[in-house]
Write a structure and sequence with these properties.
single chain; six-stranded parallel sheet; 14% strand; binds thiamine diphosphate; alpha/beta
């Protein structure tokens, strides 16, 4: 290839990006222009991918962590032959296009993860690399994970957590290209980011290298060297100029997040030796050069497929899975007044299914003894042996969430991870991304209320259920007893299009006789657990640990001649999805006397109780005391429920 063709290939990435941002009249041209040399070398010479089959399991994964530079990725996808037309590039950021402002997984072929919230993509890539190492140890998978990361990515805490565990695990399949352009939105990185980034990464255990990000030979050598490192993740700091080639905006934050402007685009194209009158122009020889990726990719995939040597059985069981009926494996419990904690029931469920579900990789953010996430036969993933099925995330909840997203996105893995419910706040940005991406990620959130007792208000979640329920496409499941907990695991594993949060108690819960074979009922989100002999005068709604309180109130009221129904409601989201007839059968419109009890913020409950109902919850922080005292002092008692029912009856 003549160097001028190579230069025109790189400049085509730049001009496409500039033109698309200009046409949309919004977007980020500077980063794609600055990283075009790096991206060109990576995508045409190193990345092992097949644009005709973006789902080839052994493809290298590429993450554009600095998602604001989306036009860089869209340009590469179009140019190398993914199913993304030039018309889509021209429709950048428009309604109904496959080229939204930030890359969205599932929408655009070849986009491996949704990025935009800085740092998430960095950590997703670590999860992908862990998954790849896991499969590498158990099969012949051997791909790399590459990412382009920015100053913003490296400033974010989540990337620092993820970099730390990536170094610990020695993920040699991870090669990150850092856009070291020393510019962020507010201006120079001198304003707020002056540490020695490479020394920091060296301390994490990464291999590092600093290069000129516009010297393509330097880039080639650095990536080739990184591939040889083998036992460490690699960070290549590529010194670049944001808005490269723009006579008046190169090196300035002005090119970061707004169109260059017609006049500046003309000047920039002239500087590239480009015809300034041409827009979205792709020279034929440039396209032909990029499109070699199709032939090369088909050959790579075919060669890999041809090498099948019998070590594929595990890959197949994980990548071509069908729904598993775990009913015969999951524990069932007889009625038991003493009962067990739902976290313990979850641990029992995991003991039963942990090794039976291929690709299930558990973990916890250093709360194994509390979350009970480890299962019989678990085996930790470590640098010395990646074949395990459990990850010690360390005290890194945010990265745990983003790493689980990466594992799920990689494919083949069903990740779950545990922490205290109160620290779901630390996972929240990643939960939101899992919900947005519609990926199967399971959280085990234990110590789910003031019921954890003496650890006090710092550890007692109050607003967390409401906050988790507020995330669209997130399913929150708060099982009432051990049988509902077994059912919750089946529901979570069956759910392929979004995250599920299992919300579990520290304290024991009685097992109800009525929850034998509760699976199909729990899957509807809410069901009648106990009913009145005749027509109920009131409905008592509860979740999790408060279902037992509701049952006591129900019995007490029955003795007083007040017939009530108890609805156990492990999941609002699942109940909402039921048809009107089922919802009416559970919550008859005519019964307006409804009392909900939940040891959490009452926020949102009126959706189920209606205006005439009563919500017994907690609208303040907790206290440090034995949990029985807290329930009594905060008024979460059968008596309070019974009184509310009686008051409601007088409406
Ligand atoms: C978590 C998060 N916070 C803030 C933003 C808004 N934002 C977008 S890009 C950016 C920083 C830009 O600097 P850099 O990452 O160096 O990108 P460059 O300017 O080099 O394109 C910020 C703060 C974001 N996308 N994500």
């Amino acid at each position: 290839m003549t160097s001028s063709l190579e230069q025109r290939c790189v400049d085509t990435i730049r001009t496409l990006s500039m033109d698309a941002v200009q046409k949309a009249n919004s977007g980020h041209p500077g980063m794609p222009m600055g990283m075009a040399d790096v991206a060109f070398v990576l995508w045409t010479e190193f990345l092992r991918h097949n644009p005709a089959n973006p789902h080839w399991v052994n493809r290298d994964r590429f993450v554009l962590s600095a998602g604001h530079g989306s036009m860089l990725l869209y340009s590469l996808l179009h140019l190398t032959g993914y199913d993304l037309s030039l018309d889509e590039i021209k429709a950048f950021r428009q309604w109904g296009s496959k080229t939204p402002g930030h890359p969205e997984h599932g929408l655009t072929p070849g986009v491996e993860t949704t990025t935009g919230p800085l740092g998430q993509g960095f950590a997703n890539g670590v999860g992908m690399a862990i998954a790849a190492k896991h499969f590498g140890a158990r099969s012949r998978m051997d791909h790399h994970v590459y990412a382009i990361v920015s100053d913003g990515d490296l400033m974010e805490g989540v990337s620092q957590e993820a970099a730390s565990i990536a170094g610990h695990l020695g993920l040699g399949n991870l090669i990150y290209l850092y856009d070291d352009n020393k510019i962020t939105i507010d201006g120079s990185t001198d304003l707020a980011f002056t540490e020695d980034v490479l020394k920091r990464f060296q301390a994490y255990g990464w291999h590092t290298r600093a290069i000129d990000g516009h010297d393509r030979d330097d880039i080639r050598h650095a990536i080739a060297e990184a591939q040889l490192v083998g036992d460490k993740p690699c960070l290549i700091a590529c010194r670049t100029q944001i808005g490269y080639g723009s006579p008046n905006k190169q090196g300035s934050e002005e090119s970061h997040g707004s169109p260059l402007g017609e006049a500046e685009i003309r000047l920039t194209k002239e500087a590239y030796g480009w015809d300034p009158d041409l827009q979205f122009h792709i020279p034929d020889d440039v396209l032909a050069h990029f499109r070699q990726a199709l032939e090369k990719g088909a050959a790579l995939e075919a060669a890999w497929n041809a090498e099948a040597d019998g070590r594929d059985a595990y890959l197949e069981s994980c990548f071509q899975r069908s729904a598993m009926d775990l009913a015969t494996l999951l524990p069932a419990y007889a009625a038991d007044a003493k009962g067990i904690a739902s976290r313990k029931a979850s641990g029992n469920a995991l003991d039963a299914i942990g090794t039976a579900v291929p690709g299930l990789i558990g973990g916890t953010a250093d709360l194994g003894g509390s979350n009970l996430t480890a299962f019989k036969g678990f085996h930790a993933i470590q640098k010395s042996d990646y074949s395990g099925n459990y990850l010690h995330h360390g005290v890194r909840e945010h990265a745990m969430g983003a790493i689980m997203n990466g594992m799920a996105l990689h494919g083949g893995v069903i990740p779950y991870g545990g922490t205290f419910l109160v620290f779901s706040d630390y996972c929240r940005p990643a939960i939101r991304m899992a919900a947005l991406m519609k990926i199967r990620v399971i959280y085990v959130f234990t110590h789910d209320s003031i019921g954890l007792g003496e650890d006090g208000p710092t550890h007692q979640p109050v607003e967390h259920l409401a906050a988790l329920r507020a995330i669209p496409n997130n399913v929150v499941l708060r099982p009432a007893d051990a049988n509902e907990t077994s059912a919750a695991w089946q529901i979570a594993l069956d759910r392929t299009d979004g995250p599920t949060c299992l919300v579990l108690t520290r304290q024991n819960l009685p097992t109800f006789a009525q929850t034998a074979d509760v699976g199909p009922k729990a899957a509807k989100g809410a069901y009648v657990l106990a009913d009145a002999d005749g027509a109920p005068e009131a409905v008592i709604l509860a979740t999790g640990s408060e279902v037992a309180i509701a049952m006591q109130a129900h019995e007490q009221l029955a003795a007083e001649g007040v017939p009530t129904r108890v609805v156990s409601m492990p999941s609002w989201e699942l109940f909402r999805k039921q048809d009107a007839a089922y919802r009416e059968a559970v919550l008859p419109a005519t019964v307006r006397n409804r009392v909900a009890i939940e040891a959490a913020s009452p926020f949102g409950w009126t959706e189920w109780t209606g205006d005439a109902g009563t919500v017994i919850g907690i609208d303040h922080f907790g206290e440090s005391a034995p949990y029985q005292v807290l329930y009594r002092e905060f008024g979460l008692t059968p008596q309070a429920v019974a009184e509310a029912v009686k008051r409601g009856g007088s409406h």
